[in-house]
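JOB MANIFEST
job_type = single_chain_structure
chain_count = 1
residues = 235
[input]
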Amino acid sequence: MANFLTLFGLSFAPGLFILWYVYCKDKYEKEPARLIFITFCLGAGVVIPAGVIEHILESIIPMPYEGNFLGAFLFAFLVVAPTEECAKCLCIRVAYRSPHFNEVMDGIVYGVAAAIGFATVENFFYVFEGGVSTGIARAFLSVPGHAMTGAILGYYMGMKKMNPESKKRFIEVGLAIAILFHGAYDFVLLTQTLLCLLIIPIMICLYFFYRKKVYLALKGSPFRAGRDEDLFRKP
């Protein structure tokens, strides 16, 4: 029983903590908990359909992907990353249509909610199969990685929502960046070589990219009303 509770906690706690952290970052106009919960549930709900699509696409690759450079590259960048990031995008679009989605930071919040819903269900399967060590590793790598790519995707969807007349392809750019980070993460792991060490710089780059987008979203918030000028003043 104790082991079950430990694994259950490792499955759910990391993602929920990250979602709470990002929710607190949205300090100028909070999003309704109900819509965040719906987006979270949608993210959780697309795990199985995404897995089915990945399985179908995987059969097209004529080589193993574990320990094979070309197979790992194709699987990471053409199967897993685009399928999962597109799934997150579809989940965010439900909140996107809501009048509550009225600033760029909202996109980040809903992007993280969708990503954490997805990551939490995925985490449940991996942790109960791999045990405590898997849960700890994923708490610091996979779950934050999902959250940050979701945040980046949400940021660009927010830019599109706030600039509907712009011809810039915000959503396409967001998807491309999220897929690039996600694919790079999966690729180095799947090679099962010393390239796995690149996980650390990839996560660091992803974190700084995510942090910059949060900074820009908060700085440009129409609800900031001149607050926190010291935080956003150029050096």
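[summary]
DSSP finds ten helices and no strands in the chain.
The chain has a mean pLDDT of 92.
exit_status = 0
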